[in-house]
Specification:
The chain has about 600 residues and is α/β, with parallel strands linked by helices. It has three domains: about 1-285, Metallo-beta-lactamase, Chain A (4-Layer Sandwich), CATH 3.60.15.10; about 305-425, Response regulator (Rossmann fold), CATH 3.40.50; about 440-600, Beta-Lactamase. It has 17 helices and 26 strands. It has an eight-stranded mixed β-sheet. It has a seven-stranded mixed β-sheet with strand order 7-8-9-10-11-12-13. The protein has a six-stranded antiparallel β-sheet with strand order 23-22-21-26-25-24.
Length: about 600
C-alpha cells in the first residue's frame, strides 16, 4: 500500500519560500494498493498536483475513490481544480459523512456556485457518484474501510484503511475531549475510544495543528495538539505517526522547532512509535502481516433524512434551554424538556428520545442520579441512551461516572455543540424494528392454537425437513418457526439449542406479513434488523430467508426458515426449493391434524 502526501497544511493554503519543505497546500493524501485501487483522502489544494500527476502517469480511464473527512473549505477547495473530473471516461466515487437530510453533491457544489466560481459541477465529464457514510465499515474492492466520528465543529470522519496486509488510519480534524489529554496526559473515555480506533496501525496520519501551550486559546476549534496525537498513537501501539494539518502560521523552521522539542520532552514515547512531520511529496510504502478483516455494521447510508429521536433536556435555565433548542432545530431535531427528575424514565421512554442532555447547573448529584437512572432502568433501549453533561468536565470526586457518555465542558460554541450532538445522535441511531401485528391477528392466533402444535415434543417428520434445508442451502441454521402472541416457538431447530425467542427479535414475525419468501441478504444493511440482539449478539445472524406457512384458511402461522452468519444471496431456483420444503412442512402439519382427528 503506497501512501503519498499532496497537501499537509491546515485551515489555509500557505505555499511560499517559508513552507517549501513541509508544504503549503491544504490536506490531500493518495493511497494506491497492490491491485491498483486508487483512494484519495481529502481534496484540499494539494489535489491539483495529484490530478496532474495522474494524467501524466496513467493511460486510459481512471477510476478513483475520494474519501472526504468533512466538508470544511480547506478539505474540499481543490475539487474544482482536479482535472481528472473533467475527462470523459473517468469514474470518481465520493464518500463523506451523512448528516440530517444533507446532499453530498449539493454540499460539494456549494463552492462552485455562480457567485463564487465560473464552472459548475455540470461541467464534469467524468462519471461522478456520491455515497453517504455513517460509522461502520464498507469495502472498495479488496480494501476494507472503517469509519469513526471525530470531535470537530462539523460532522467529520476518521478512516481506517486495511489493504495488502497493512493498516493506515487518517484522523483529521479532531479535538481532544479532555483538557488533560490535550496536554499529552492519560487518555480516558472518548479519547481512549479514539486511540482504540488507531490500534495496531502501520501508519497513523493525525491532526497536530497546535502545541499543548497553545490549546487553551483554541478550545472548541476542533484540532489536536502534537502531544495528544503522540499519546494516542503510543497507546494504540501504532508503528508510525505522521503529524499533519500544520498551522498556517507555522513555517518550516517552526515545524522543525516543535519536532526537536518533541524529541527532547518525549524520548520514551518516541522510542515506541516513529513520529515525524508530514511533508508534501513524502511517499511511504506500507508492508504489514496478514490481518483479520472482520466487517462490522455498514457505513454506507441511503441518501435520506435520518430518523433521529428527539433530544431530551433536563434543565431549569431558560437561556440554556433556548440555546439548545436553536442548536438541535438547525438539524431538524425536536427537543423535549423538563426541569426535574420526577418521572424522567417514563418521559424518555414515551418520546423514544435519541439523547439525554443534563444541565450540570442542576448539581452533580442530579446529573449522577439521572445518568444512573437511565443506565439501570432495566429497559434495553433506554439503558443504551447516551447521556451528555452540559457545562461540566468529568469531576474527580470518587464516584462512578461511566453512565455519562460525554461531557460538554465550557466554553463551547453553538457549532461545536451542534457537531458533537449530531455525531452522537447518528452514532446511536436505532436500526431495529419489531414487526407490526398482522391484520386479523386474533383470528390468526386462533388458527395457530387450534393446531395443538405449540409446546409439543420434537418430531422426526419435521426435524428431517430442517436437516434437509440446512444441507441443501449449506447454512448452519434451519427452523420450523411458529409465531405466537409474545414469542416465536420452534417446532424444529437445526444449529442452535433453542425452543423459543421473544417475538420482538423474530425475523419470522416480519415474514408472516407476506405470501412469498422473505429474504434478507445482509441484516447489517437492513434498518429493520441491523441493531437486533440476534444480529449483534449470538447467534449473529447476517442472512435470513423464510418461506411462510399459510394454512388453507389463509392464515400464516409461521415459516420454514434458514439463516447464516455470513451475508449471501438467494437465487430464483433456491427460492423455489425453499417454497417446496415449506409446502412439505404444511403437508406434515395437515397429516398430523388428520391423524389426530381420526383418533378422536
Amino acid at each position: 500500500m503506497k501512501v503519498r502526501f499532496w497537501g499537509t497544511r491546515g485551515s489555509l493554503a500557505k505555499p511560499g519560500p517559508a513552507t517549501v519543505r513541509y508544504g503549503g497546500n491544504t490536506s490531500c493524501v493518495s493511497v494506491e494498493t497492490d491491485d491498483g485501487t486508487l483512494l484519495v483522502i481529502d481534496c484540499g489544494t494539494g489535489i491539483h498536483e495529484l490530478g496532474r500527476h495522474l494524467l501524466r502517469t496513467r493511460d486510459g480511464p481512471i477510476h478513483g475513490h475520494v474519501l472526504i473527512s468533512h466538508t470544511h473549505w480547506d478539505h474540499i477547495q481543490g475539487i474544482p481544480f482536479f482535472v481528472p473530473l473533467f475527462r470523459a471516461g473517468n469514474r470518481w466515487d465520493f464518500y463523506a459523512a451523512q448528516g440530517f437530510g444533507e446532499s453530498l453533491r449539493e454540499t460539494l457544489a456549494g463552492q462552485m456556485e455562480y457567485t463564487y466560481f465560473p464552472v459548475t459541477p455540470e461541467a464534469f465529464e467524468a462519471s461522478v457518484h456520491y455515497h453517504h457514510l455513517g460509522e461502520g465499515s464498507f469495502r472498495i474492492g479488496e480494501v476494507l474501510v472503517r469509519t469513526r466520528y471525530l470531535n470537530h465543529p462539523a460532522l467529520t470522519l476518521a478512516y481506517r484503511i486495511e489493504a495488502d496486509g497493512a493498516v493506515l488510519v487518517y484522523a483529521c480534524d479532531h479535538e481532544p475531549h479532555a483538557a488533560e489529554a490535550a496536554r499529552g496526559g492519560p487518555l480516558s473515555g472518548e479519547d481512549a475510544e479514539h486511540a482504540a480506533f488507531l490500534r495496531g496501525a502501520d501508519l497513523v496520519i493525525h491532526d497536530a495543528q497546535y502545541l499543548a501551550e497553545e490549546y487553551p486559546d483554541k478550545v472548541g476549534w476542533g484540532h489536536s495538539t502534537v502531544e495528544y496525537a503522540l499519546r494516542a498513537a503510543v497507546e494504540a501501539g501504532a508503528r508510525r505517526l505522521a503529524l499533519t494539518h500544520h498551522d498556517p502560521l507555522r513555517d518550516d523552521l517552526a515545524v522543525d522547532r516543535w519536532m526537536r522539542r518533541l524529541r527532547h520532552d518525549h524520548p520514551q514515547e518516541l522510542a515506541r512509535v516513529e513520529a515525524f512531520p508530514a511533508a508534501e511529496g513524502m511517499e511511504i510504502e506500507l508492508k504489514g502481516s496478514s490481518r483479520s478483516s472482520v466487517e462490522g455494521p455498514s457505513a454506507l447510508e441511503a441518501a435520506r433524512t435520518v430518523d433521529a429521536g428527539p433530544v431530551f433536556l433536563l434543565c431549569s435555565r431558560e437561556a440554556l434551554a433556548e440555546r439548545i433548542r436553536r442548536i438541535v432545530a438547525a438539524d431538524g431535531v425536536g427537543l423535549r424538556r423538563q426541569e426535574d427528575l420526577a418521572g424522567l424514565a417514563e418521559a424518555l421512554a414515551a418520546c423514544r428520545a435519541g439523547l439525554l442532555l443534563v444541565d450540570a447547573g442542576l448539581g452533580l448529584d442530579v446529573l449522577h442520579r439521572a445518568a444512573s437512572l437511565v443506565r439501570d432502568s432495566g429497559d434495553r433501549r433506554l439503558s443504551q441512551l447516551p447521556v451528555v453533561a452540559l457545562d461540566a468536565a468529568p469531576p474527580e470526586d470518587g464516584r462512578d461516572w461511566s453512565a455519562v457518555s460525554a461531557w460538554l465542558a465550557p466554553p463551547w460554541s453553538d457549532p461545536y455543540a451542534r457537531s458533537r450532538l449530531r455525531a452522537i445522535l447518528l452514532r446511536t441511531r436505532h436500526r431495529w424494528q419489531p414487526a407490526p401485528l398482522p391484520e386479523h391477528e386474533a383470528e390468526r392466533l386462533a388458527a395457530l392454537h387450534g393446531l395443538g402444535l405449540l409446546d409439543t415434543p420434537a418430531e422426526e417428520r419435521f426435524d428431517r425437513l430442517t436437516r434437509i434445508a440446512a444441507a441443501v442451502f449449506d447454512v448452519p441454521f434451519a427452523f420450523v418457526s411458529l409465531v405466537d402472541a409474545e414469542r416465536q416457538w420452534f417446532k424444529s431447530c437445526v444449529g442452535a439449542d433453542l425452543r423459543e425467542t421473544p417475538r420482538e427479535v423474530s425475523f419470522c414475525a416480519h415474514a408472516i406479513h407476506q405470501r412469498e419468501p422473505m429474504v434478507v441478504s445482509d441484516t447489517l444493511l437492513d434498518d429493520r434488523f441491523a441493531d437486533s440482539p440476534v444480529v449483534l449478539e449470538e447467534p449473529r445472524i447476517r442472512f435470513y430467508a423464510g418461506a411462510p406457512l399459510v394454512l388453507a384458511s389463509g392464515h400464516c402461522i409461521g415459516t420454514l426458515c434458514i439463516a447464516d452468519r455470513r451475508p449471501r444471496e438467494l437465487g430464483a431456483e433456491p427460492m423455489r426449493l425453499l417454497k417446496d420444503l415449506a409446502a412439505m412442512v404444511l403437508e406434515e402439519i395437515d397429516g398430523r391434524q388428520a391423524r389426530l382427528s381420526s383418533r378422536r
